[in-house]
Structure prediction request, 230 residues.
Amino acid sequence: MHTMTVAEELRQLDALYHLYEDITGGVEIACVKGCADCCTRNVVVTTLEGYRLAAHLAQGQGDVFESLRTEVSNPRFIPKITTNRLAQLCMEGREPPEEIMAPPDSRCTILSGAVCAAYRFRPFACRCMVSKIRCADTGIAEMDDFAVTVNTVFLQFIEHLDVGGCSGNLIDILMVLESEAHRRRYRQRGAVCRNPLLIPNIPIPVLMVPQEHRRRLSPWIRSIQKNLAF
Prediction:
Protein backbone atom coordinates (compact mmCIF):
# COMPACT_ATOMS: atom_id res chain seq x y z
CA MET A 1 0.00 0.00 0.00
CA HIS A 2 1.02 3.61 -0.59
CA THR A 3 2.39 5.34 2.52
CA MET A 4 3.20 8.71 0.88
CA THR A 5 1.32 11.20 -1.23
CA VAL A 6 1.92 11.16 -4.98
CA ALA A 7 3.85 14.44 -4.66
CA GLU A 8 6.14 12.86 -2.06
CA GLU A 9 6.65 9.79 -4.21
CA LEU A 10 7.53 11.96 -7.20
CA ARG A 11 10.19 13.71 -5.12
CA GLN A 12 11.57 10.30 -4.17
CA LEU A 13 11.51 9.30 -7.83
CA ASP A 14 13.51 12.40 -8.76
CA ALA A 15 16.01 11.58 -6.02
CA LEU A 16 16.46 8.12 -7.50
CA TYR A 17 16.96 9.61 -10.95
CA HIS A 18 19.61 12.01 -9.63
CA LEU A 19 21.41 9.24 -7.77
CA TYR A 20 21.37 7.10 -10.91
CA GLU A 21 22.98 9.96 -12.83
CA ASP A 22 25.66 10.22 -10.13
CA ILE A 23 26.47 6.51 -10.44
CA THR A 24 26.50 6.41 -14.22
CA GLY A 25 27.72 9.94 -14.94
CA GLY A 26 31.25 8.78 -15.71
CA VAL A 27 30.24 5.89 -17.93
CA GLU A 28 31.25 6.34 -21.54
CA ILE A 29 28.28 5.97 -23.87
CA ALA A 30 27.65 6.51 -27.56
CA CYS A 31 24.16 8.00 -27.05
CA VAL A 32 23.68 11.62 -28.17
CA LYS A 33 20.73 13.91 -28.84
CA GLY A 34 18.94 12.76 -31.99
CA CYS A 35 19.93 9.12 -31.51
CA ALA A 36 16.54 7.40 -31.16
CA ASP A 37 17.06 3.85 -32.40
CA CYS A 38 16.17 2.42 -28.98
CA CYS A 39 13.04 4.60 -28.63
CA THR A 40 10.39 2.02 -29.41
CA ARG A 41 6.84 1.31 -28.23
CA ASN A 42 8.14 -1.54 -26.04
CA VAL A 43 8.88 0.62 -22.97
CA VAL A 44 7.56 -0.58 -19.59
CA VAL A 45 6.71 1.99 -16.88
CA THR A 46 5.07 2.23 -13.48
CA THR A 47 1.87 4.17 -12.84
CA LEU A 48 3.89 6.74 -10.87
CA GLU A 49 6.08 7.49 -13.88
CA GLY A 50 3.07 7.33 -16.19
CA TYR A 51 1.13 9.75 -13.98
CA ARG A 52 3.82 12.42 -14.28
CA LEU A 53 4.20 11.95 -18.02
CA ALA A 54 0.43 11.91 -18.66
CA ALA A 55 -0.06 15.08 -16.60
CA HIS A 56 2.65 16.80 -18.64
CA LEU A 57 1.26 15.67 -22.00
CA ALA A 58 -2.23 16.80 -21.00
CA GLN A 59 -0.92 20.36 -20.75
CA GLY A 60 -0.71 21.25 -24.42
CA GLN A 61 0.39 17.97 -26.00
CA GLY A 62 -2.96 16.21 -26.18
CA ASP A 63 -2.24 15.24 -29.79
CA VAL A 64 0.19 12.63 -28.41
CA PHE A 65 -2.73 10.80 -26.83
CA GLU A 66 -4.47 10.77 -30.22
CA SER A 67 -1.39 9.14 -31.73
CA LEU A 68 -1.19 6.67 -28.86
CA ARG A 69 -4.74 5.52 -29.49
CA THR A 70 -3.70 4.42 -32.97
CA GLU A 71 -0.96 2.28 -31.40
CA VAL A 72 -3.26 0.21 -29.19
CA SER A 73 -3.96 -2.29 -31.96
CA ASN A 74 -0.28 -2.62 -32.93
CA PRO A 75 2.11 -5.28 -31.57
CA ARG A 76 4.03 -4.14 -28.50
CA PHE A 77 5.71 -5.71 -25.49
CA ILE A 78 3.14 -6.59 -22.81
CA PRO A 79 5.00 -7.64 -19.65
CA LYS A 80 3.71 -10.63 -17.68
CA ILE A 81 5.67 -9.93 -14.50
CA THR A 82 7.36 -6.95 -12.88
CA THR A 83 11.04 -6.75 -11.95
CA ASN A 84 10.32 -7.46 -8.28
CA ARG A 85 8.08 -10.38 -9.16
CA LEU A 86 10.98 -11.78 -11.20
CA ALA A 87 13.23 -11.37 -8.16
CA GLN A 88 10.66 -13.19 -6.04
CA LEU A 89 10.44 -16.10 -8.47
CA CYS A 90 14.24 -16.36 -8.63
CA MET A 91 14.45 -16.32 -4.82
CA GLU A 92 11.91 -19.16 -4.69
CA GLY A 93 13.74 -21.13 -7.36
CA ARG A 94 10.81 -20.91 -9.75
CA GLU A 95 10.94 -20.32 -13.49
CA PRO A 96 9.52 -16.99 -14.71
CA PRO A 97 6.91 -17.06 -17.49
CA GLU A 98 8.13 -16.77 -21.03
CA GLU A 99 7.80 -13.21 -22.26
CA ILE A 100 6.74 -12.54 -25.85
CA MET A 101 8.90 -9.81 -27.33
CA ALA A 102 7.49 -7.30 -29.77
CA PRO A 103 9.08 -6.04 -33.00
CA PRO A 104 12.15 -3.96 -32.05
CA ASP A 105 11.71 -1.53 -34.94
CA SER A 106 8.49 0.03 -33.61
CA ARG A 107 8.94 3.78 -33.23
CA CYS A 108 7.83 5.47 -30.00
CA THR A 109 4.84 7.74 -30.57
CA ILE A 110 6.18 10.44 -28.25
CA LEU A 111 9.14 11.10 -30.55
CA SER A 112 9.12 14.36 -32.47
CA GLY A 113 11.48 13.68 -35.33
CA ALA A 114 14.36 11.97 -33.53
CA VAL A 115 13.87 13.86 -30.26
CA CYS A 116 11.65 12.94 -27.30
CA ALA A 117 8.79 15.45 -26.99
CA ALA A 118 8.68 14.84 -23.23
CA TYR A 119 12.38 14.27 -22.50
CA ARG A 120 12.35 15.87 -19.05
CA PHE A 121 9.54 13.54 -17.95
CA ARG A 122 10.77 10.35 -19.60
CA PRO A 123 10.52 7.19 -17.46
CA PHE A 124 13.48 5.28 -16.07
CA ALA A 125 13.30 2.60 -18.76
CA CYS A 126 14.22 5.34 -21.24
CA ARG A 127 16.85 6.92 -19.00
CA CYS A 128 18.71 3.66 -18.48
CA MET A 129 18.68 2.51 -22.10
CA VAL A 130 22.22 3.45 -23.08
CA SER A 131 24.85 1.79 -25.21
CA LYS A 132 28.63 1.77 -25.54
CA ILE A 133 28.29 1.58 -29.31
CA ARG A 134 26.05 3.27 -31.86
CA CYS A 135 22.90 1.17 -32.17
CA ALA A 136 22.44 2.46 -35.72
CA ASP A 137 25.70 0.73 -36.71
CA THR A 138 24.90 -2.72 -35.34
CA GLY A 139 21.14 -2.77 -34.77
CA ILE A 140 21.56 -3.54 -31.05
CA ALA A 141 22.70 -1.77 -27.91
CA GLU A 142 25.74 -2.94 -25.96
CA MET A 143 25.82 -2.47 -22.19
CA ASP A 144 28.35 -3.81 -19.70
CA ASP A 145 27.24 -6.24 -16.98
CA PHE A 146 27.60 -3.78 -14.11
CA ALA A 147 25.35 -1.26 -15.88
CA VAL A 148 22.72 -3.98 -16.30
CA THR A 149 22.89 -4.72 -12.56
CA VAL A 150 22.57 -1.04 -11.65
CA ASN A 151 19.58 -0.68 -13.97
CA THR A 152 17.89 -3.73 -12.46
CA VAL A 153 18.35 -2.48 -8.90
CA PHE A 154 16.91 0.93 -9.73
CA LEU A 155 13.97 -0.68 -11.51
CA GLN A 156 13.35 -2.62 -8.30
CA PHE A 157 13.41 0.50 -6.11
CA ILE A 158 11.17 2.43 -8.53
CA GLU A 159 8.62 -0.39 -8.53
CA HIS A 160 8.82 -0.59 -4.72
CA LEU A 161 8.09 3.14 -4.54
CA ASP A 162 4.83 2.57 -6.45
CA VAL A 163 3.51 -0.43 -4.50
CA GLY A 164 -0.26 -0.16 -4.74
CA GLY A 165 0.12 0.93 -8.34
CA CYS A 166 0.99 -1.19 -11.35
CA SER A 167 3.32 -1.55 -14.32
CA GLY A 168 2.73 -2.05 -18.00
CA ASN A 169 3.57 -0.91 -21.48
CA LEU A 170 3.91 2.87 -21.70
CA ILE A 171 1.01 3.01 -24.16
CA ASP A 172 -1.37 1.13 -21.88
CA ILE A 173 -0.39 3.11 -18.77
CA LEU A 174 -0.84 6.43 -20.58
CA MET A 175 -4.19 5.38 -22.02
CA VAL A 176 -5.43 4.77 -18.48
CA LEU A 177 -3.97 8.00 -17.09
CA GLU A 178 -4.95 10.24 -20.02
CA SER A 179 -8.19 10.98 -18.16
CA GLU A 180 -7.98 13.67 -15.48
CA ALA A 181 -10.56 11.67 -13.55
CA HIS A 182 -8.20 8.67 -13.52
CA ARG A 183 -5.23 10.83 -12.54
CA ARG A 184 -7.29 12.29 -9.69
CA ARG A 185 -8.26 8.78 -8.63
CA TYR A 186 -4.57 7.81 -8.63
CA ARG A 187 -3.73 10.86 -6.49
CA GLN A 188 -6.50 9.84 -4.09
CA ARG A 189 -5.22 6.24 -4.05
CA GLY A 190 -8.19 4.81 -5.92
CA ALA A 191 -7.90 1.77 -8.20
CA VAL A 192 -6.59 2.57 -11.69
CA CYS A 193 -5.07 -0.81 -12.53
CA ARG A 194 -8.15 -2.71 -13.66
CA ASN A 195 -6.87 -3.00 -17.22
CA PRO A 196 -5.93 -6.70 -17.71
CA LEU A 197 -2.76 -5.64 -19.54
CA LEU A 198 -1.39 -4.04 -16.35
CA ILE A 199 0.33 -5.97 -13.55
CA PRO A 200 0.51 -5.05 -9.84
CA ASN A 201 3.73 -3.70 -8.39
CA ILE A 202 5.12 -5.52 -5.36
CA PRO A 203 7.73 -4.65 -2.70
CA ILE A 204 11.36 -5.67 -3.15
CA PRO A 205 11.74 -9.29 -1.99
CA VAL A 206 15.49 -9.36 -2.59
CA LEU A 207 17.84 -7.15 -4.60
CA MET A 208 19.16 -8.88 -7.72
CA VAL A 209 22.85 -8.10 -7.34
CA PRO A 210 25.39 -10.69 -8.49
CA GLN A 211 28.19 -11.46 -6.07
CA GLU A 212 30.80 -9.79 -8.29
CA HIS A 213 28.96 -6.45 -8.18
CA ARG A 214 27.98 -6.31 -4.50
CA ARG A 215 31.04 -4.54 -3.14
CA ARG A 216 30.94 -1.87 -5.84
CA LEU A 217 27.20 -1.24 -5.61
CA SER A 218 26.60 -1.64 -1.87
CA PRO A 219 27.48 1.99 -0.89
CA TRP A 220 24.84 3.27 -3.31
CA ILE A 221 22.25 0.81 -2.04
CA ARG A 222 22.95 1.91 1.54
CA SER A 223 22.57 5.53 0.45
CA ILE A 224 19.16 4.79 -1.06
CA GLN A 225 18.02 2.91 2.01
CA LYS A 226 19.31 5.59 4.39
CA ASN A 227 18.21 8.75 2.62
CA LEU A 228 15.04 7.64 0.86
CA ALA A 229 11.90 5.98 2.15
CA PHE A 230 13.02 2.38 1.71
